[in-house]
């Protein structure tokens, strides 16, 4: 049973994000449709570097995986990384 099954729009629920290292760098964590693969990859690498030093890394990664977050870099994982992990879990 996912720990984050029921998302709550409350400040208390989202308080773990108060310590996020990505605050102020949000543009690096989400890519635009029109961006080239190279530009996207560069932003993802920069985002992952920020995640690597983030004090809420584990919580963020767990949250993104358990809620099947579709977009952006969370806990050092890109959208493609999460798809790969989800696929591995489905196929065992
Ligand atoms: S792990 Fe990365 S995406 Fe998650 S809160 Fe920290 S910096 Fe932001």
Describe the fold and architecture:
InterPro entries: 4FE4S_WBL, Whib. This is Transcriptional regulator WhiB. Acts as a transcriptional regulator. Probably redox-responsive. The apo- but not holo-form probably binds DNA. With 92 residues, this protein is an all-alpha fold. The chain has one domain (21-91). The protein contains four helices and no strands. The longest helix has 16 residues, at 37-52. It is globular, with a radius of gyration of 14 Å. The two termini are 17 Å apart. The mean pLDDT is 89. Iron/sulfur cluster (SF4) binds next to helix 2 and helix 3.
Mean pLDDT: 89
Low-pLDDT segments: none
What class, by secondary structure content?
A: mainly alpha
Number of structural domains: 1
State the total count of DSSP E strands: 0
The main β sheet shows up as: none
The N- to C-terminal Cα distance equals 17 Å
